[in-house]
Amino acid sequence: MTMPEFWKSAGLHLLERDEQGWLTVTPQFILAYLTRPEVHPVAESCANEIALHERLLEDPFAAVSDADITAMADADAIDNYRVVLAFRDALIKAGTIEGAYLDLIRERKNRTPPVFLDQLAHVIARNMLDGATDPFRVRAGELLFRTQKASTDDGQLMLADEEIVEMHAKAETQTGISQLLAETGTPMREVALDVLDEDNAAGYWARSDRFDTVIDFRFEQPALDGFARVLERWLAHLIGLEVRVEPRPRLDDTDWRWHIGLDREATGLLNRLYDGETVDLDDMAKIVGLFRMTITDEARVLDHVRRRPIYLALAMDAGGVVRMKPQNLLTNLPLVQSS
Questions:
Q1: Which residues contact 28 (CB under 8 A, 6 or more apart)?
Q2: Please, which residues have CB within 8 angstroms of residue 112's CB and are 6 or more apart in sequence?
Q3: What is the SS3 assignment for 312?
Q4: Cα 333 off chain centre by
Q5: With contact defined as beta carbons under 8 Å apart, do 158 and 217 qualify?
Q6: Number of neighbours of residue 235 by Cβ within 10 angstroms
């Protein structure tokens, strides 16, 4: 059976797996960053900038001193090179994509641009889901690195890629028809994206890099269950932690010991609930996913949390945007510190 291909844009083809299944940093992967517009010379670039760029294209792992960077004439180019090369050096130092991601999210003063962390999460997710055959699970995995827009019309809970929604909306507003409709008070048609269901799910693979499918994220729907399996795999792949994650319709626990918000909004809501504050219905309605997680190896868990579930939540902000922070699940676990 041929395994379906998906997320070619992740860059998995530029990397190699080591013995534990992690992705080894290669010159080809570094080159993808060195050819970004932010660091690619332009017509106005000085000779020092051009020479440095050409040297890096020949050897993406080449050592670069601060003097090499400050010798460039353009201040913006200097800033861009410092950011990209600091990221490159973190990748080289770690040796693997997974190792670099863990190092970066654990840094107290992490200045890595969020887009770079998202790109690492993208290729890590592609690696850990390699061989997956469930399109709902893979589509739910997009939440690890793509911001979503939630819709709760008619009692439903649909998640669509925010960038794609904005792109469609922008196309609408740039037409003369949209202006005419606005002037006449006629509502514009809503953005039409395909909702993934059993009938069209097989078509996900061919369009996976378009990020243009919508998922029903309600309780007992396959996308929500798929997301739970993604969270399990995320922890197993990155830190070797075996867990069981179960979607829950509500949080009813009189002996609640630990929780993790999978984004800023959810963190705030869970903290307030844990502290016994009254949270109004409008704020509670922001929660798009609630989960109960158990850790298989109790010996790795802090004493006061052992044999107790850990609650996870994912939420949208006031504008209906869901910005998951997958690093939260890795850095906020109630685990015993290894000596």
A1: 14, 15
A2: 86, 87, 90, 104
A3: strand
A4: 18
A5: yes
A6: 18
pLDDT in tens, 48-71: 999 999 999 999 999 999 999 999
User: Could you count the other beta carbons within 10 Å of the beta carbon of residue 109?
Assistant: 4
> What stretches of the chain adopt beta strand conformation (E)?
16-17, 23-24, 148-151, 158-161, 194-195, 213-216, 243-247, 258-261, 287-295, 310-315, 321-322
Q: Which residue has the tokens 């570094």?
A: 30
Residue 2 CA to residue 167 CA, distance in Å, equals 33
Integer Cα distance of 35 and 325 in angstroms: 27
Contact 261, 289 (CB under 8 A): no
| Cβ proximity of 317 and 265 under 8 Å | yes
Two tokens, residue 19: 């013995």
> How confident is the model over 113-155, as pLDDT tens digits?
999 999 999 999 999 999 999 999 999 999 999 999 999 988 8
Cα–Cα nearest to 213, from 197, 192, 190, 193: 193
Give the Cα separation of 268 and 242 in Å (integer).
27
Contact predicate 235/144, CB 8 Å: no
Distance of CA 58 to the CA centre of its chain: 31
Q: Quickly state the pLDDT bin for 159 (edges 50, 70, 90).
A: very high
Q: Helix/strand/coil (H, E, C) string of 114-164?
A: HHHHHHHHHHHHHHHCCCCCCHHHHHHHHHHCCCEEEECHHHCCEEEEHHH
